[in-house]
Specification:
mainly alpha; about 160 residues
């Protein structure tokens, strides 16, 4: 069995430790950390079935998926890969909320499918923008808190 959660957890710790080094990247480090934590939670929820053969097949599938992810990261870059993965997850959520699957969508008449694809694309864009705004706001609050702490240390506790 390939254990990717240890690698992901280790990488997550490195990024958390070095967050201040790339503060000007528009919150991409935080988005990436969020993605890693979600992936770790998903992998922790996956349990092997009672049948050893099914578990082995599952491990093989996970290894193949992991290798595909690594190849995609090498090809597109980590930031593009993370954005793409988040868009896929949002798309799945939207389709599920509509009671649809990719297969059902593919079977629809082209005009109906095009309308639904447009709605999905707009919703993905809206959700991605909202996540970015929320992360930017979180970063500003964190920067303000650090600044206030620095001023308090320099000027004394009675300054505010």
């Amino acid at each position: 069995m390939i254990e990717t959660s240890c690698t992901v957890a280790g990488f997550s710790n490195v990024l958390e430790h070095n967050q201040g080094l790339d503060a000007g990247n528009g919150g991409k480090t935080e988005v990436f950390l969020s993605y890693l934590k979600e992936e770790m939670a998903v992998s922790d929820d996956v349990s092997a079935g009672p049948d050893d053969r099914a578990a082995a097949d599952s491990d093989t599938e996970k290894a193949a998926e992991y290798n595909q992810d690594i190849a995609a990261i090498k090809e597109k870059g980590i930031v593009a890969f993370i954005i793409e993965q988040r868009e896929k997850r949002i798309r799945e959520e939207i389709l599920a909320s509509m009671g649809l699957t990719e297969e059902a969508l593919a079977e629809m008449p082209s005009e109906q499918r095009a309308r639904i694809e447009k709605i999905i694309a707009e919703e993905i864009k809206k959700r991605m923008s909202a996540e970015t705004l929320m992360q930017d706001n979180k970063n500003r609050k964190s920067d303000t808190a650090r600044l206030m702490a620095a001023v308090t240390m320099e000027m004394g506790p009675g300054i505010f």
